[in-house]
Every structure is written in C-alpha cells, then in structure tokens.
Amino acid sequence: MENTATTRTLTRARDNRVLGGVCAGIARRYGWKRRNVRLAFILSCVLPGPQFLLYVALWLVLPEEA
C-alpha cells in the first residue's frame, strides 16, 4: 500500500518572514499560526535557556524553501 500523504519538511519561509523565517517555517510545517509560534518564542526568551542560540542555529541550518 502506497502512502499518498504529502510529507512536509521543515524549511525557512520565504514569505511572511520577520527575521530569518524560522518561526514561519515551523508554523507552516506543523499547521500552526505564525503569530502563535512567534509569541511562544518571544515569551520563551524570558526563561533561562538557549532559545536565542537555538533560533540562530536553525536559521543557519534550515534550508530556505524553494
């Protein structure tokens, strides 16, 4: 039996980007609203941890969508 579902890969968005398109790409991949992903990222930055470094790493590693 063949899987007919389309596979969505995680890429940086070309449109609707604010900085690097990482949050918009995550939102597109999982079917979430861009605004909610951006808000979650901004709110997570007040917590201790490497959130900003993770964002920069994803910006460098994720390919831009074609």
From TrEMBL:
<feature type="transmembrane region" description="Helical">
    <location>
        <begin position="39"/>
        <end position="62"/>
    </location>
</feature>
<keyword id="KW-0472">Membrane</keyword>
<keyword id="KW-0812">Transmembrane</keyword>
<dbReference type="GO" id="GO:0005886">
    <property type="term" value="C:plasma membrane"/>
</dbReference>
<keyword id="KW-1133">Transmembrane helix</keyword>
<keyword id="KW-1003">Cell membrane</keyword>
<feature type="domain" description="Phage shock protein PspC N-terminal">
    <location>
        <begin position="8"/>
        <end position="65"/>
    </location>
</feature>
<dbReference type="InterPro" id="IPR052027">
    <property type="entry name" value="PspC"/>
</dbReference>
<dbReference type="Pfam" id="PF04024">
    <property type="entry name" value="PspC"/>
</dbReference>
<protein>
    <submittedName>
        <fullName>PspC domain-containing protein</fullName>
    </submittedName>
</protein>
<dbReference type="InterPro" id="IPR007168">
    <property type="entry name" value="Phageshock_PspC_N"/>
</dbReference>
